[in-house]
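The data layer described in this paper is built around a simple, fixed record for each protein. We quote a single record here, exactly as it is kept in our systems:
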Amino acid sequence: MSARRIVAVLLVLSMVAGSRGFGSAAEAPPAPPGSEATPPRVSYINGEVSFWRPGAQDWAPARVNLPLAPGDAFYTGGGGNVEVQIGPRAFVRAAEGTQLGLDNQEPDYVQFRVTAGHAALDLRELGAGQTVELDTPNAVFTIERAGYYRVDVTEDSTTFRTHRGGSATMTPAGGQPTAIAANQQIVLTGADAPRVEAGPAPQLSAWDRWNSQRTAALLQPASARYVPQTVYGAESLDQYGSWRTVDTYGAVWVPSAVAVGWVPYSAGHWIWDPRFGWTWLDDAPWGWAPYHYGRWVFIGSSWGWVPGPIVVRPVYAPALVVFLGGGVTVSVGSPLYWAPLGWGEPIIPWWGRQGHVGVASWQGWGGPRVVNNVVVNRTTTVNVTNINVYNNVHVNNAVVGVSADRFGRGSVQATRIDSAQIRQLKPVRGALEVTPVAASVAPAGSVAARPPATIRERPVVATRPPHDVRPALRAQGLASTAEPVPAPTPKLVPSPKPVTRGATTSEPPSGTRPPDDRTEPKKEKRAATPPPRPTPEATTPPAELKKEKRTVTPPPPRPEEARPEQKAEPRKDKRPTPEVAVPTVPSPAQPAPPAVQSNPGQRRQQEGRPPSAPPSPGAVRAPAEPPAPAQPSDPSARGRGDQRERQDRER
């Protein structure tokens, strides 16, 4: 054999060695469409809040930590308030009598609609190129800058105002885009050819100040030193658990006040999400970060959540579990089990597009990659059929399951199996053969109040139509229901020219104020001082981190306002309107409990709330129950002399 032929043979062998079978370098699988955008989450509920998702039979009570998808909508009933987190430092809140809908979401764009009521956007930070669109019956408002924004929608008018240096663009139906400067108010009357009045924004109301104080209390939690900045829900980790350092794992968070025999992914239920498929919704108030990021480990006699090394871009997952069944696939009626993924184990996606489902992935995980208890190189290609060892499967009672015909149909009624039965189970490597039903898209089994038909059917002005969820519903066999999707066809207008920005916009640090903001009281800034940042010497987790105590301030005075004349539409079945269950989060009128070391023997409180604790000196104070928003003022009805007199009093 000639030297040239020998070289050619060696080249062929090297190429074959680089294929999948030999486990050499390969690129990580691409993320599914939309997965790079963390879904908004419901981060706070007070009072009666109803929720609608396309495919459901009726409106249901909203739940804290519910991940949202385009097509979802809320209605706040008597005394209701709901908070939606859309970014690490960005929140949308709706007060009583408001219908708020999520129409679209992309990595750099989110679109909401408000057909009635009061909404506030507290955007402390907005990334470069990011846009928030707010659609109303009278105009569409495009926001590309951090600030505080307030919208009030009545039967025939929309009032929009900016504070804290925020600015926006207003486009009415059939009109031209108009810039709204900082600290300005716009009032539009009429839908097709609205009459526009502009003037200075009025002073912040008690509800506006509550919004500002609550946001400040949520920022910079102590747990932020252990989890990435873009992971939501770190503030709840401070309240409901403690941190410790464990060899091999680093920082470990241990929940407090859990029931005897508790295991992760056992108290909650599976819901169907149009984008991410089967998604875990936990009952615990801290149940966001530990169920969509990181891994769970069993240490000594208790479970702990390990976020792993901090990564720049963590990736949201609907759950981090391994599904187990009697074979490679699960047939209808046969048991379907699951267990939390352990340290470094890959997720085998059951959601997403072809090429993503069933492919081992460590996206968003910064720690070592472990396959069958062996650490593998980051460039190693892993065949999922060879993954058979999952450490947590062999922890006592860690495997939880239900029959497949009960999966995604209400709260999990845990089924326990012994070690002999566990050995007969095999991992499910790909999509689950479980079809969602109408009950699978609702966060709760009960029925909540519907908004009035005039509110549900009210069209808005928008730059793009709402995301069409019907193909996803048809693909899953979800039949259309009698209740229409609350997103009538909008009046489309051209999108305004985007503002060119080279960097993220954020508000000034705490303690400063924009030079042109005369409506922001100084005392409000002092009352809403965020928690201090951890000192440099505290960046390494100690053996046991003492949890920060949080207290609340009394609720601000409730301003008088004209209540909406429209009442919630009664249900056709004539059953009494059920009360929305108090979410398992600390009441805004109750202080958070002091940190305690995890005690697996301590049972969860029957009410699902932490006990009250006296305020601690110097503790950061979070706002209590929000007041009702004041009615917007009409700039045309105020004289210039009244404005000067008010400004003098504010100074």
